[in-house]
Amino acid sequence: MKIRFQPHPARAVPASPHTAILLLATLMFLLSACNRQDKAGTGIAPAAVAPTVAPAAAPVTPLPATTAQAALARLNAPVAPLSAVAEIGKKIFYDKSLSASGKLSCASCHNPDNAHAPANGLAVQLGGMHLQAQGGRAVPSLRYHEHAPAFSIGPDSKPDEDDKGALLQVAAAKVSPAAPAVAKATLQPAAAVQEVVPQGGFDWDGRASNLTDQAGGPLLAANEMANKSAAQLLAKLKAAPYASDMLQLFGPAVFTSSNLALGEAYYALALYQKEDRSFHPYDSKYDYYLAEKVQLSEQEMRGLKLFKDTKKGNCATCHSEKPSHNGRFPPVFTDYQFEALAAPRNQAILANRDPRYVDLGMCGPWRKDMAEQLNYCGYFKTPTLRNVATRQVYFHNGVFHSLEEVVRFYVERETQPEKWYSRDQHGKLKKYDDLPAAYHANVDVTDAPFDSKPGAPPALTDDEIKDVVAFLKTLNDGYRPEKKQIPGK
């Protein structure tokens, strides 16, 4: 559960001059394009369609020079020092005294040694005054959020596939009715204009509009860091070893108001995550592959092809593996959108033992502004797949504990639902047992592999599942290649 502090002024993380120039140029280009589109009546261009993959024996198509150059530049970029404000954010991130127990910091759940995610197999983490209160959902990683846009509901766009990724960050939130379900991988131009989807934001339900907003949630949540009030948290900040730094940077009045002090603290936390390279190192084996410094193994390459194949894994439809066309924005393996995937109910979460309790994602219980948008009940944000193999629990409720189990659920959810869902007292199968029947129509059954029928063979064989998992393991940060992995490189 993440109960956020009362609204405080949102502060944008400052962009570099180069980024500002890029944003201005991109905005001018898109505005001119919009004028042309309005005249033509075509609306927003559709997302790129995932190509049909070549057979495993076919040679690998060379990567564009800009992609390899950009990937190599990221790998070789020197580590930049943190700004003074980000340094304060780092101190706050590791400060256990800010919790009611005195034993919990941001880093306790977002462990930097485990890709800023929990390093244990608990479905939800423990917090509160005595570290015995269960959290409401599985704790996600804090990595690779630096280009995440603000929450909005609008046309289906793919920030990873073009240079609009940075521009999306300033898009205003707009709530619109949902269009009928359409398979993402098969969108045609006319359909793409009509497809309206929720995207962006932070937390599993997207309720935090930006990193600054997200940073404050756990500090006041009763089952997390459990400060009873903003005033109590303010007193702890005033007594912190870095209080003098806050006075120097934010001014002598910073501690005169809870809104002001906490707003600056949340901003510092957000800036730390933006600036510190450990939150977005882009140094996995896949990044070295993009830089043409290593080759993927035969099994990893088969897994990549299955990952992209719209008739097999179809993973890339939501977890794009592509950088932007000029290589500037690296692949983050998420489209920042939301899906209803109907993960099985997890009885390890104590709240789930009450049959009346349901976690509806975007519709609540913690997000309030979308409670009446029933067409989004059961929707949760699509997470990045970077470092996914380092996780010990998966989905918003932590119901699965291995990647192989997750992939198998994806391909068997519709073909063998009895394998994954519980039965009622009369032995009747409760398909989608963690979502009330009124919202079953929200579940994705249009995109492969969810478009299969009961009794049909799964979209992936056992060996193909192992191949996909092998590829996913190439997304772990911290890869160190041996010399001369590719002849002549």
Write up this protein.
The structure is a single chain. A hairpin with a 5-residue loop joins β1 and β2 (about 135). The protein is built from 14 helices and 6 strands. It folds into 2 domains: about 85-145 and about 205-280, Cytochrome Bc1 Complex, Chain D, domain 2, CATH 1.10.760.10; about 280-489, Cytochrome c-like domain (Cytochrome Bc1 Complex, Chain D, domain 2), CATH 1.10.760. A two-stranded antiparallel ribbon has the order 1-2. A two-stranded antiparallel sheet has the order 3-4. Strands 5-6 form a two-stranded antiparallel sheet. The chain has helices spanning about 15-40, 65-75, 85-95, 105-110, 165-170, 190-195, 210-220, 230-240, 245-250, 260-275, 285-290, 300-310, 405-410, 460-470; strands spanning about 125, 135, 150-155, 195-200, 340, 380. About 30% of the residues lie in helices and about 5% in strands. By secondary structure, the protein is mainly alpha-helical. Mean pLDDT is about 85; it is low at about 1-60, about 160-180 and about 185-195.
Number of strands: 6
Average pLDDT figure: 84
Radius of gyration: 23 Å
The CATH topology of the largest domain is Cytochrome Bc1 Complex, Chain D, domain 2
Largest sheet composition = 2 strands, antiparallel
The H-level CATH homologous superfamily of the largest domain, spelled out, is: Cytochrome c-like domain
CATH class category name of the largest domain: Mainly Alpha
Q: Mind telling me which CATH architecture of the largest domain this is? A: Orthogonal Bundle
Q: What order do the SSEs take from the amino end to the carboxyl end, as H and E?
A: HHHHEEEHHEHHHHHHEEHH
Strand order of the largest sheet: 1-2
Count of the separate structural domains: 2
Choose one word for the global shape. Answer: globular
Helix content: 25-40%
Main structural class: mainly alpha
Query: In terms of per-residue confidence, which ranges show pLDDT below 50 for 5 or more consecutive residues?
Result: 1-58, 159-180, 186-193
Tally of individual helices: 14
In percent terms, what proportion of residues is strand? under 5%
Q: Alpha-carbon distance between the termini?
A: 49 Å
Task: Please identify the oligomeric state.
Answer: single chain
